[in-house]
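Cross-posting from the chemistry board since nobody answered there.

I work mostly on the small-molecule side, so proteins are not my area. We synthesized orotidine-5'-monophosphate and want a rough idea of how it might sit in this target. Sequence and SMILES are below. Is it possible to get a predicted 3D structure of the two together?
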Amino acid sequence: MSFDRLIDKIIEMKNPTVVGLDPKLEYVPEFIKRRYLDSDGWTLKAAAKAIFDFNQAIIDEIHDIVPAIKPQAAYYEMYGHYGIRTLEKTIRYAKLNGMFVMTDGKRNDIGATMEAYSNAHLGATAVGENQLEAFGADALTVNGYLGTDGIEPLLKVCRERDKGIFVLVKTSNPSSGELQDMKLADGRTIYECMGDMCERWGEDTRGKYGYSAVGAVVGATYPEMLTELRQRLPHTMFLVPGYGAQGGGAEGLKGGFDEKGLGAIVNSSRAVMCAYKKEGCDERDFAKAARREVIRMRDDICQYINLK
Ligand SMILES: O=C(O)c1cc(=O)[nH]c(=O)n1[C@@H]1O[C@H](COP(=O)(O)O)[C@@H](O)[C@H]1O
């Protein structure tokens, strides 16, 4: 009921990073696409099958180095129910390989509907007497803007099943300040207020490292705010996207970590999935190129933090 399982893995692997599996078909090497698209045609089904092979090969190459993956649901929903099946299989395959899985769904709704999202992604669905796991991820990204009743159903599942959530606090995109940086009457920004709510929501779920089951998404593209939020939210684990393809650099990330080098996990998606394109290596070596990139990323970030 905290992020202890994730932090244990980060310490064991000495690696505070997560690979985002956001697989567009154009990232998948031709030789894999031909495997299905030549025989089945250019269909959603064939694309979803090719994407699963792509994900599987990357997981095979990175699972001994990286503690977690973060599949972004949109890249699977694009392929309809075939894509959803690929998401489900990808989650299962990563878990079989010992990885922590954070589904990036950025979900939120009223309490009743949020209960359905919580059961779908983190908990289980009741079918008669049976409680059946649908996706079974370890954590989910969520939007907190509907307030406490939209978060409560998630907290219930986090407590019962040892899961976690990452709430959007200060996002990495260029327009994030339009709303998130606005000041409230009490002088706080909206993102500070959302961060404070994360501390409160997580209060009774703190684990052995002091971090609760309620984490926050804070973009690598805003290093000063990342540093400021680390001080402000001592019990909130950060998911930090924006490193690599969005321009966030390793040095700017250090303020997001605590003095033990914990408290944050940095995501990279395109830079890992498409490392083979950047390297210009044979496309058949795409998974090895992903492996080289995750090692480079780990070493790049770890040089600035005190993770023992
Ligand atoms: O919640 C997220 O993961 C997220 C929040 C945010 O503020 N910015 C952000 O980029 N993300 C996600 O993080 C990933 C970043 O991908 P790359 O820019 O390719 O590394 C994508 O899956 C985004 O949807």
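Reply from a structural biologist on the board:
Welcome over. Reading the output above for you: The chain has 13 helices and ten strands. The longest strand covers residues 100-107. Happy to explain the token format if needed.
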